[in-house]
């Protein structure tokens, strides 16, 4: 069975104090839980503090973005090596806010993905359709384009260090969650894409997370779908109680 993932994307939220307190509370809760992989992605300035607070627990940390160049005159950017330097195991790439607010293209996301994987930094690659794309029955087409674009040149071996996150844009921060059927259908499409573009083993072992208004009260149902291997959580990851509830749901399913 694929190990379930509970990943918190804090986006541009928290303060130094609240980030540290949240990380400490979660570290106390998670301790050395090995049945679920818990990943926290705080804002860049708080990564080091969060890393310190979770030391001694099994929680991993990740960046919310990175740049593909290794160093140089790229004001405001953060390299893969810098993330690794401060103890990140993961980076979120292709988040819909990067795509639709910052204008990142599949080609940009691909360069970052390749750069991260070359250095051994794990990638949580986000894909997902806009509401108008879903309404025009273009969901699978969009997912296919984003998978092909994002993973261009990525080998089956490198893909072992990739988690896919299906995040329908219309479900992010809206309180509207994809139904279990909608989530499962998109995840099934993504797994089939992995089978045809890589192989059955890769498709079987790659984790595909759902993201979009995941809360403690819908997490268990979503994660119990055969092709949903965990959650990438925004708003509900900002409180230890609610993210803790989502972690509990994942632990319960893993042990069940
Ligand atoms: O974008 C998300 C995680 O990356 C989801 O955000 P919400 O859980 O706030 O909908």
TrEMBL record:
The enzyme's E.C. designation: 5.3.1.1
Family annotation (InterPro entries):
Aldolase_TIM (IPR013785), TIM_sf (IPR035990), TrioseP_Isoase_bac/euk (IPR022896), Triosephosphate_isomerase (IPR000652), Triosephosphate_isomerase_AS (IPR020861)
One Pfam family for this entry, by name?
Answer: TIM
Q: Name one GO biological process term.
A: glycolytic process
Domain of life of the source? Bacteria
| Residues the record marks as active site | 95 (electrophile), 167 (proton acceptor)
Associated pathway: Carbohydrate degradation; glycolysis; D-glyceraldehyde 3-phosphate from glycerone phosphate: step 1/1; Carbohydrate biosynthesis; gluconeogenesis
Q: How does it assemble?
A: Homodimer.
Q: Which Gene3D superfamilies match?
A: Aldolase class I (3.20.20.70)
**Protein name according to UniProt:** Triosephosphate isomerase
Where are the coiled-coil regions? none
- Which residues take part in binding substrate? 9-11, 173, 213, 234-235
């Amino acid at each position: 069975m694929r190990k379930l993932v509970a990943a918190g994307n804090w986006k541009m939220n928290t303060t130094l104090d609240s980030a540290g307190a949240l990380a400490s509370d979660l570290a106390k809760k998670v301790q050395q839980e090995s049945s679920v992989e818990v990943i926290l992605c705080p804002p860049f300035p708080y990564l080091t503090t969060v890393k310190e607070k979770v030391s001694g627990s099994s929680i991993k940390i990740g960046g919310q973005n990175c740049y593909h160049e290794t160093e140089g005159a790229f004001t405001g950017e953060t390299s893969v090596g810098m993330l690794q330097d401060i103890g990140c195991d993961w980076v979120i790439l292709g988040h819909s806010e990067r795509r639709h607010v910052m204008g990142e293209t599949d080609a940009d996301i691909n360069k970052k993905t390749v750069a991260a994987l070359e250095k051994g930094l794990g990638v949580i690659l986000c894909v997902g359709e806009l509401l108008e794309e879903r309404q025009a029955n273009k969901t699978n087409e969009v997912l296919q384009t984003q998978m092909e674009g994002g993973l261009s040149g990525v080998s089956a071996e490198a893909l072992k260090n990739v988690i896919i996150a299906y995040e329908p844009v219309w479900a992010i921060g809206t309180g509207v969650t994809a139904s279990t059927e909608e989530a499962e259908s998109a995840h099934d499409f993504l797994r089939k894409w992995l089978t045809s573009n890589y192989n059955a083993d890769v498709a079987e072992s790659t984790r595909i997370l759902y993201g979009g208004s995941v809360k403690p009260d819908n997490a268990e149902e979503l994660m119990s779908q055969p092709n949903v291997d965990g959650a990438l959580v925004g708003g509900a990851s900002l409180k230890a109680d609610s993210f803790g509830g989502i972690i509990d749901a994942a632990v319960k399913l893993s042990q069940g």
